[in-house]
Amino acid sequence: MTRFITQPAPWSQRNTGDRIPHSNKVDPKEPARAEILILLHRMELAGLKIDDRAVEIAHALCRHRRTEVERVEQVKPPLAPGYDVSGRKSWVYYVRCGYLIKIGTTFNLGSRFQSVRPNELLALEHGTHVLETARHREFKPLNAGGDYFHPGPALQAHIKELRDRLGPPDWPGSVLKDGHDFFPDNQVDG
Questions:
Q1: Which of 11, 44, 52, 58 is deepest in the core (most CB within 10 A)?
Q2: What is the per-residue pLDDT across 117-138, written as a single tens digit (0 to 9) for each?
Q3: What's the 3-state SS for the chain?
Q4: Segment 58-109, tens digit of pLDDT
Q5: Do the beta carbons of residue 129 and residue 149 sit within 8 Å?
Q6: How far apart are CA 80 and CA 131, in angstroms?
Q7: How far is it, in rounded angstroms, from Cα 107 to Cα 144?
Q8: What crossing angle do the helices spanning 153-166 and 129-138 adopt, rounded to 10°?
Q9: CA dihedral defined by 26, 30, 34, 36, rounded to 10 degrees?
């Protein structure tokens, strides 16, 4: 019969009672308590002695940080569709690369299409990575790997709807013609 001898872990012998360092120095009802305790721990790791003045400084810093975050969140306008947090216009693009469709996003169509080098730009819509991710989920059954999708009926219908609603994209730059246009002469078959 095998017998296991269990010994208490070394940390359990040293850490009796309250396991959070300096928790007795911060009021449990303090809204920024966790942040203050983390800051006190970092200060201690940096070699500072944690006395009443250090606790006072940690309180002040954490309260200031909280009020700054709250102030910024109140002032921050809601994002318009197709714009990121810095206010840059963003596009979700649908391009044909060979016999697959790539769904991606970019702030700069010209530079993006220099690296992607699509055969045909199928559609554009204003949107950020959030919309791109939603489109990837929507067409997941057609996924061929990464950002590339098979041109199934659902994806073709979505592209057609975008083109009907927004018009065919007017983008001549950096498109490689191969004679297999999904929408020849920018005309959508009805």
A1: 58
A2: 778 888 888 888 889 999 999 9
A3: CCCCCCCCCHHHHHCCCCCCCCHHHCCCCCCCHHHHHHHHHHHHHCCCCCCHHHHHHHHHHHHHHHHHHHHHHHHCCCCCCCECCCCCECEEEEEEECCEEEEEEECCHHHHHHHHCCCEEEEEEECCHHHHHHHHHHCHHHEEECCEECCCHHHHHHHHHHHHHHCCCCCCCCCCCCCCCCCHHHCCCC
A4: 888 888 777 766 665 554 444 445 555 556 688 898 988 888 999 998 888 7
A5: no
A6: 12
A7: 24
A8: 140
A9: -60
What are the tokens at 23? Answer: 């928790």
> Quick one: average pLDDT of 4-27?
61
pTM (whole model) above 0.70 = no
Return the number of other C-beta atoms located less than 10 Å from residue 95's C-beta.
24
Output the CA torsion sign for 172, 174, 179, 180. negative
Q: Which two tokens stand for residue 138?
A: 């929507």
What are the backbone dihedrals phi and psi of residue 122, each rounded to the nearest 5 degrees, phi first? -90, -45
